[in-house]
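Mods, move this if it's the wrong board.
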Amino acid sequence: MIILSILVFVFLSTWGLTCLIYKKALRHQVFEKPKTVSMHKDPKSNIGGIGFGSVVLSSAFLWMRGTAAPVNELFLYIFFGTVLLLVGIFDDVNGIKAIYRLFLQIIISLCFTWVIDHYNLFHMESGGLLTWAYLIFFFGWVIGMINTYNFMDGIDGMASAQAVLAGIGWAGIGFLTHVEWIIVFSLILSVAMFAFACFNWHPAKIFMGDSGSTFLGFTFAILPLYLDLSTPTIGARVSLIAGAMIMWIFIMDPLVTVLKRVYRRENLFSRHYRHLFQRLVLNGKHPHDRVVSVYMAFTIMGIGFAWRWILYPTQTLLITFLLISGICYLSLHNYVWAIERKKGRAKRPLQNGL
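Not the wrong board. Structure tokens:
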């Protein structure tokens, strides 16, 4: 009953804050103007991340400290999550060049990694090669998730729907591993994002902006590590793979897109519309909500595999997941390519949006 009351409070708080932010943005004309080629025709407010970000962080601070959650690690998340949220808000309002924004994210991720190593919060043997390899991978995982989530926040409802499902997925993992605080925290995150999604679903009234997307990317990056901390018998490998299974389409789409742009020697910091979901919308026959529904189906598949993996982390299951997810992505990629080829868009230059 207490948990239900907390979730109701989270929903109403996020709904109220988002509504207030939306009205303030209308009054003060805080909008992101659409570019020449854009996913939207009308200017929209892009500071919605302030609402759900502040609710999730405050809920974690007020409720989690009285549970079995790891206190020091939880405050570490709250501190760095707040820093990322504030940097994102400044970027949404004033604008920061992409190279400078990436530099700030690298500094924040390095500081987070250094604190973990310095205070040995994850109880690793210091000084060993394996420890350094783990920390380097961890740093890359965090900075990668922050940016991939930011990349995928490109159409109405995409990032918010993913967060709702991912929160449910992590709540299920918490249930399967008997970690109560992960269950409650994940449900808080999912409910807050559901409230925000009511404003962000197509046609969107407000966007989460960099403040929301980077905060969510950071959150989903560290959840596997906190699961490993709470249940040492599972292990970091199993936890990280479970997290990657839940987020697989949000990892695959940006990764393939970046590799293609590197191969074509394109400026990685320039605006583009090469992600599959963007190309589907720009072809004119696939509305935002239909495209998001396809990606939601992919995420649900990943959640199912993640739940099974937590219980039975076998090599066969991992190979099966890789094969099925690869087939799903290639099928979508070939479908998009076929549409573009039919319309004569496959070789359209970058500045035209494809």
